[in-house]
Structure formats: C-alpha cells, structure tokens
Amino acid sequence: MQRKARVMGGRVLSVASECVPLVKTGGLADVVGALPGALAGTGWDMRVLLPAYRALRAQAKDWPVVWEEADLWGGPGRVLEGRVEGVPLLLLDAPHLYDREGGPYSGPAGEHPDNAIRFAALSWVGARIAREGLTEWKPDILHAHDWQAGFAPAYLAYHGSGGVKTVITIHNIAFQGWAPAHMLGVLRLPGHAFHPDALEYYGGISSLKAALVTADWITTVSPSYAEELMRPEFGMGLQGVIAARGPVVSGILNGVDTGVWDPSQEDPAYDRKAVAGKAVARARLSEEFGLEVPGPLAIVVSRLTDQKGIDLLPAVIPEFVLGGGGLIVLGSGDPGMEGAMRNLAARFPGRVAVRIGYDEGLSHRLFAGADAVLVPSRFEPCGLTQMYGLRYGTLPVVSLVGGLADTVIGANPATLAAGAATGMTFHPVDALAFGKALAQLLEIYHQPKLWAKLRANAMAHPVGWETSARAYASLYERLTA
After folding, report:
1. How many CA atoms lie within 13 A of 248 on its CB side?
2. What does the pLDDT average to over 63-77?
C-alpha cells in the first residue's frame, strides 16, 4: 500500500517582548516581525504573542478577545487577536503589568522592579495557549525569543506540554533574566527543579537558563555565534549549559527586509546591478553634513558601547582621516562614548560628523551615500548593520566575530584572486587590527576596478529572509516529524 505523503507545514506560536512594527529596542524586534511573512511561503503559519504595552492597547481596542485568565499575577489578563502591517498578532492585555509609561523594560524611574513577573506572565500565557490552543488554532511549535520568553518552554516542560515542541532563540546572551531564588514559587516553578542541572543559576533563577535546559531545540542568530556561546569568553556563564546540549544547538542567520532596505528607493539609478546612484547619494549626504572627503566616506550606525567596539574609534580614525577618509556617526549610548565621538568631530571638522540619537530616515541615507560601514564589535550575535551595508554596496569593515564572520567575506589574497571578497575583516578586536583594516580600505578605494568589483560582490550577496525561513521551516519539520 502506498504511504500517504506528510503535509508540510504547521502552526507556530512565537513568544516575544518586541516586534516590528509595534515596538522595537533592537534587532530582536526585526526578526520577530519578519519571520511570519518569511515563513508563509513554506507552509508554516506563525502568530506572535506580544505584551500589550500602553502604546499598543489603543491600537488593539477593537480586536476580539480570544483568551482570558482571571488572575495573572495580581490582575486579569486577556489576549486580543489582530493584524498590523501583515503581522498576525496576539496581544496579551494585562494593564497591571504592561500599561506603563516608558519602554518595554523600564520607565522614567529606571528598570521595572517586577520585570521577572511581567515576562513570566507572557511566558505563562504562551505556554497555556500552546498547550490548550485557541478556539480555531493550536500550535505545533512554541518558539520563544530571549530571556523575556524563556519560562515558556519551562512551563510546558513542568506543567505538561500537550505534545507541543519548543524552540528557544538566543538573540543576545548578555541578557539572562535573573531573579532571586525566593521567587521560585511565585514564578510558578517547581521546587524539585531548583538544582544546577535544571533551574538553579548562581544561587538564583535565570529565565534564559530555564529555556536552555527545557526546550527541545536551541537556536542562535548565526552559526558562528552558536559555536562561540560554548566558550567562556562569549557564553557569559551559560557556556557549559549550551555545550551540554550541543546536539540540539544550531545557528540560523537573520535576514533583512529587502523591501524596506531597498537602494532603488533612494535613487532610481541605485539598483541591484549598478551603483550609479551612489555618487549622487554621497554628494547629498556630504552637503547635509558639511563634509569634504577626498577618500572613502565611512559610517557608524550603532549603539555607542564597548560591546560595539566604539571605544576603538578615537585610536584609529585620526590615521584614517589623514589618509583621506571621512566618518559620520549616528547613534547613542554610553555618555563617555558620545563625548568621544563629539570630540572626534570637533577635532576634524569637515571630515567627521556626529549625530547623537537615532533617525530611521537618516540611517537609510547614510547607507545609500557612504562608501563603507564600520562594525568593530567585540561580540555580535548576528548583526544587521553589515547586511544593510552589503545591500547598498557600502562595504562592511567588520571584526571576525559571530554573524559578522558569517556574512562578510574579507579581502585577502585568496578571496581577491577568486573575485569573492565583499568587505574588510579583522581579528583580534583591537586598535592595531582595526587600523590595518582601515588602511586596506583606503588602499582598495584608490583601485577603481577592484573597488567596483567588491561593491558589486557585496550587492549580489543574498541578505534577505528566504534562506533563513527555509532553515527555520526545516527545523520545525524535523521537530514535528
């Protein structure tokens, strides 16, 4: 008898604290917002469970209620279902937890002291919906993102899974969701699991560790980051946990929204095959910032922190400027770093400019008009900045860590001979190596044919979600087979 072919695809509940276009503090939101649409062509139906923060409640006021709980850590909770810009959403409306002034994690007075409970509630509701299903929809997979959703796999593991498989994606291991041990019962976690092989973490509880020890599969946002996290210098205390689960750890690169990050939107001549529009965009950008740069114009679009390697810029940019280069910095962060960037601009007027803060429109103009983008991160789970650079023919100069190593082909004798290079790379992450990469950038810039080849290679490099979506779909298929 002929066996009936298994129907590909299924249902996934994605549980997260951020999602474009509703709320964003970092790359996590971009991934969560992009995945449902990217997966649609693979047969997987993904819906995103997100807290109904204050700004979101008004937007969802007319959405139907699809789930309710009378006592969700001190108040009622209900889930509203709707869609925003094509993203299928489930909003957890619990005003006592989420209707607050400020961002997702902090308000005017600083970080919310009950964040452990706020995101345990999100995880609890995600686990219940996964286990019990909604009226006409029940997921096969619960996909949790970072520490904010970390308790969701644990709740399914300790309170019954209902046959649902679980995935946890680590977007940035630096944030681990720590809570004191006395909250174990409050967080609805079993006492018998409070030991080093399960929930206990340096005398307390980590929601991220809870996910790492209970989820069926662990992913990170790049293959190199998956390997790095098993080493002490990158694992931040969780390297042993991740290494112990090595057979179910994998890295899947993020992608970028190529409809939003589209060079042809900046200038019709600026398309995927030619960069005639680059000169026009650079002239506009130089005029906007009052710059006159004879050599390559580089940009930094980043949080201004040590992790991003911003502290290296004062040591390397003077030599770069003396060689003919220029720099525009867009970002905010550590006050000391912001001051250092302002000092560079004051030291090199007409060659270095700084804009503290973030401006989405300006970021697009920067990538369109610049020749290179600098990403000297000390660790980088995936990184989208270098991908924007590739997309716009703005050559990335990156440290060889995490997703940067997985997405940029550094110019060296072998890659140049093969005609494959897409940017400049350096290692270790220090001023000496970074300075040498910038010297190489200057050297290649003055070889027009070689520069054009690298730029064409960069723009031809795939940075969209197609490959990543297929990888996630394959993982889901494997888990539910």
Report:
1. 19
2. 96
Structure tokens of 129? 């919906």
Which of left, alpha, beta for 74 (phi over 0: left; psi -120 to 50: alpha)? left
> Please, what sign has the CA dihedral across residues 356, 359, 365, 368?
positive
Does one domain contain both 139 and 285? no
Sign of the dihedral through C-alpha 461, 466, 471, 472: positive
Let me know if residue 431 belongs to a domain: yes
Contact 233, 331 (CB under 8 A): no
* CA–CA distance, 24 with 43 (Å, rounded to integer): 27
Residues 242 and 389 in one domain: no
Number of domains the chain is built from:
2
Spatial contact of 148 and 156, defined as CB atoms under 8 Å apart: no
DSSP at 410: B
Query: Confidence class of residue 267 from pLDDT cuts 50, 70 and 90?
Result: low
DSSP letters, 150-179, are: THHHHHHHHH--TT-EEEEEES-TT---EE
Q: How far apart are CA 219 and CA 48, in angstroms?
A: 18
Q: How far apart are CA 348 and CA 230, in angstroms?
A: 42
Range with the lowest mean pLDDT among 200-204, 257-261, 302-306? 257-261
Domain that holds residue 143: 10-255+466-480
How many Cβ atoms from other residues are within 10 Å of residue 230's Cβ?
18
Closest by Cα among 86, 96, 79 to 46? 86
* Bridge partners of residue 91, in order along the sequence: 50, 80
The pLDDT of residue 473 is 97
In-domain check, residue 51? yes
Q: Report which of 350, 366, 362, 370 is spatially closest to residue 293, judged by C-alpha positions.
A: 350
pTM over 0.85: yes
Sign, CA torsion 149/177/246/223 = positive
Could you give the strand order of the β-sheet that contains 77-84, starting from the edge strand earlier in sequence? Answer: 65-69, 77-84, 87-93, 44-51, 10-15, 141-145, 165-170, 217-220, 249-251
Q: Give the 3-state secondary structure of residue 75.
A: coil
Here the CATH number for the domain that contains residue 131 is: 3.40.50.2000
Q: Helix, strand, coil shares of the chain as percentages rounded to 5? A: 40, 20, 35
* Confidence (pLDDT) at 3: 44
- Among residues 87, 86, 82, 78, the alpha carbon closest in space to that of 32 is found at 87
Q: How far apart are CA 288 and CA 324, in angstroms?
A: 19
